[in-house]
UniProtKB/TrEMBL annotation:
Primary location class: membrane
Protein's recorded name: Aluminum-activated malate transporter 10
Organism: Panicum virgatum
Membrane topology: Multi-pass membrane protein
The keyword Transmembrane helix is annotated on this UniProt entry: yes
Protein location: Membrane
InterPro entries listed in its UniProt record: ALMT
Keywords assigned by UniProt, alphabetized: Ion channel, Ion transport, Membrane, Transmembrane, Transmembrane helix, Transport
Gene Ontology cellular-component terms listed: membrane
PANTHER family to which the protein is assigned, alphabetical: ALUMINUM-ACTIVATED MALATE TRANSPORTER 10
Pfam families in UniProt: ALMT (PF11744)
Segments traversing the membrane: 75-94, 100-120, 127-147, 184-205, 217-238
Any GO BP: malate transport
Biased composition (Basic and acidic residues): 471-481
Length: 503
C-alpha cells in the first residue's frame, strides 16, 4: 500500500489542508481540476440554451404554419405586397423611368407601403384618400404661396403661419364629425401632413408647383399598382367578408341557443357537475363582432361592383342585422349563467317542475335554432326563403304552448308538495328549482322574441339587396332536369316538343 498526498497549489494561511488517501499498490490518483468542472458546466448551459432556442424556433414555425393553414389568403397577401413593391421599384432602379419621375420615385414606394391593405375596400379607401388629400393640399398650398409672395416680405410669414394654424385646426376638428371620421379620417391626416410640409418649405411658387406635380405622378403610380395588384390577384372583398361573417354568426348563435337549453336540463338532471359545451359559447363571437362589422361596412362602400354586390349594395343593413343578433346574444349569455348556476345546485334540486317544462323548452330552443339557421342560409345564398316564414310560425306556436305550460306550473307544484311526505323545510329546494326554471323559461321566450327581430332585419336586407326568390332558383334546376331527361329519352323529347307547340 502506498500513500498518495495531494497538497494545495500554494502554501500559506489560505491554502487547503493536506489530504492523504490510501490506494492499492500500482494504482494512480487523478485529481479533477476546477477548470474542467467549469467547462462542463458551461457546455451544459450552452446545450440547454441551444435546445431552448430550437424549441422556440420550432414553436414559432408551428404557429406561423397554423396561421397560414387557417387562412391561406394571408400568405397570398404577403406575396401580393412583395409583388407590388417589386413592380414599383422598377421606377426607381430603371434609368429611363427614373429620369421620367425624378428623385421623387421613392414616394411611389412609400405609397405602396402605406396604402396596400388586406381587402380591396381598404386599399381603395386609403389610395383615394391619399391621392385626393395630396392633390387638394397641394392646390391650397400653391394658392397660399402665391398670396403670401404678393403680400410682401413683411406680411408673408404671418400669412403662411396663419394659414397653417387655421387649416390644421379646422382639419383636425373635422375628424370628430362621425361621417368624416368613418370615411375620410386617413385623408384628413394626409391633408394636414402634406399642407404643413409644403407651407413651411421655403421654395418659390414655381418650384413648389414642380414638386407637387412630380409627387402627384409618383403617388398616382403607387396607387395604381396597389389597385391592380389587390383587385386582380386573388382579391379579398370587404363586402364578402362582412356577408360571410353575418351568416356565420347566425349559425353560431343558433348552436348556442340550442346547446344552452340542452346543457341546462342535462346539468339539472345529474348530481355531478357538467361543464357547458363549447357550442354554447358561440354567442361570444356575436358579442365581439361590432368593431369588425363597422370597419368592414365602411370599407365595403369604397369597393367597385363585384359579383352579386352592386354599386349601392346596402352594407349598412348588415350592421343592423348584427345589432339584432347582439340584442339576442345578451339573453343567451344570461342563459349560460343559469346553466352554470344549475351545475352548483344539481345535487339538491328535485325535478318535478323541470320535467313539466323540459320538452316544451327543448322544442322552443330547437325551433329557435331552426329559424336562425334558415335565416343564415337565406343570407348566405342571397335568396328569400319561404321556409323561414313557416319556421317563424312554428316557433310562435311552440312559444304559446310553453306559456300555457308555465301557467299550469303553480298547480303542478302544489300537487307535488301535497304528495310529498317530507317536512316543509325540504320543499325549499323545490321552490328554488321552480324559480330558476321560471327564469330560464322567461329568457327562452325573450330569445324567441328577439329572434323575430333578427328575421325582420334579414327580410329588410333581402328587400334592399334584391335577393332572388327561392322559386326563381328552382326554375333553372327544373328546366335543366327536364333537358337531361329528354336527352336520355329521345321519344320523350318529341312529346314535350308537341306539348309546347300545342301551347
Amino acid at each position: 500500500m502506498e500513500m498518495a498526498t495531494v497538497k494545495g497549489a500554494q502554501d500559506g494561511p489560505g491554502a487547503p489542508a493536506e489530504c492523504r488517501v490510501t490506494v492499492p499498490e500500482g494504482a494512480s490518483v487523478a485529481v479533477e481540476h476546477e477548470a474542467s468542472r467549469g467547462a462542463r458546466t458551461w457546455a451544459a448551459w450552452v446545450a440547454s440554451r441551444a435546445l431552448a432556442f430550437r424549441d422556440m424556433v420550432l414553436g414559432l414555425g408551428e404557429r406561423v404554419w397554423t396561421i397560414g393553414a387557417d387562412d391561406p389568403r394571408r400568405a397570398v397577401h404577403g406575396l401580393k405586397v412583395g409583388l407590388a413593391l417589386a413592380l414599383v421599384s422598377v421606377f426607381y432602379y430603371t434609368r429611363p423611368l427614373y429620369d421620367g419621375v425624378g428623385g421623387a420615385a421613392m414616394w411611389a414606394v412609400l405609397t405602396v407601403v402605406v396604402v396596400f391593405e388586406y381587402t380591396v375596400g381598404g386599399c381603395v379607401y386609403k389610395g383615394l384618400n391619399r391621392a385626393i388629400a395630396t392633390a387638394s393640399a397641394a392646390v391650397v398650398a400653391l394658392g397660399v404661396h402665391w398670396i403670401a409672395s404678393k403680400s410682401g416680405d413683411k406680411f408673408e410669414p404671418f400669412i403662411r403661419s396663419g394659414s397653417v394654424f387655421l387649416l390644421a385646426a379646422m382639419a383636425t376638428f373635422s375628424r370628430f364629425i362621425p361621417t368624416v371620421k368613418a370615411r375620410f379620417d386617413y385623408g384628413v391626416t394626409i391633408f394636414i401632413l402634406t399642407y404643413s410640409l409644403v407651407a413651411v418649405s421655403g421654395y418659390r411658387v414655381g418650384a413648389v408647383a414642380a414638386m407637387a406635380q412630380q409627387r402627384m405622378w409618383t403617388i398616382s403610380i403607387g396607387v395604381s399598382i396597389c389597385f391592380a395588384t389587390c383587385a386582380l390577384i386573388c382579391p379579398v372583398w370587404a363586402g364578402q367578408e362582412l356577408h360571410r361573417a353575418t351568416a356565420r354568426n347566425m349559425e353560431r348563435l343558433a348552436g348556442a341557443v340550442e346547446a344552452c337549453v340542452e346543457d341546462y336540463f342535462a346539468a339539472a338532471g345529474t348530481s355531478g357537475s357538467k361543464q357547458p359545451s363549447s357550442k354554447a359559447e358561440g354567442y361570444r363571437c356575436v358579442l365581439n363582432s361590432k368593431a369588425f362589422e363597422d370597419s368592414q361596412a365602411n370599407l365595403a362602400r369604397w369597393e367597385p361592383p363585384h359579383g352579386r354586390f352592386g354599386f349601392r349594395h346596402p352594407y349598412g343593413q348588415y350592421r343592423n342585422v348584427g345589432a339584432a343578433m347582439r340584442h339576442c346574444a345578451y339573453c343567451v349569455e344570461a342563459l349560460v349563467g343559469c346553466v352554470r348556476l344549475a351545475e352548483t345546485q344539481a345535487a339538491a334540486a328535485p325535478g318535478h317542475a323541470r320535467r313539466h317544462l323540459a320538452d316544451a323548452c327543448t322544442r322552443v330552443a330547437a325551433l329557435c335554432a331552426r329559424v336562425l339557421r334558415e335565416a343564415s342560409a337565406s343570407v348566405s345564398a342571397m335568396t328569400t326563403s319561404k321556409i323561414l316564414d313557416l319556421a317563424v310560425a312554428d316557433l310562435n306556436a311552440a312559444v304559446q304552448e310553453l306559456q300555457a305550460d308555465m301557467r299550469a306550473l303553480p298547480s303542478t307544484l302544489l300537487l307535488a308538495e301535497a304528495g310529498s311526505a317530507e317536512p316543509a323545510a325540504s320543499t325549499a329546494p323545490l321552490t328554488m328549482d321552480a324559480a330558476q326554471l321560471f327564469a330560464v323559461t322567461s329568457l327562452l321566450i325573450e330569445v324567441s322574441a328577439r329572434i323575430e327581430g333578427i328575421v325582420d332585419a334579414v327580410n329588410t336586407l333581402a328587400s334592399l339587396a334584391n335577393f332572388k326568390s327561392s322559386a326563381d332558383e328552382e326554375k333553372p334546376l327544373e328546366s335543366a332536369t327536364r333537358r337531361n331527361a329528354t336527352r336520355d329519352q329521345p321519344g320523350l323529347g318529341i312529346v314535350v316538343g308537341r306539348e309546347q307547340e300545342d301551347r
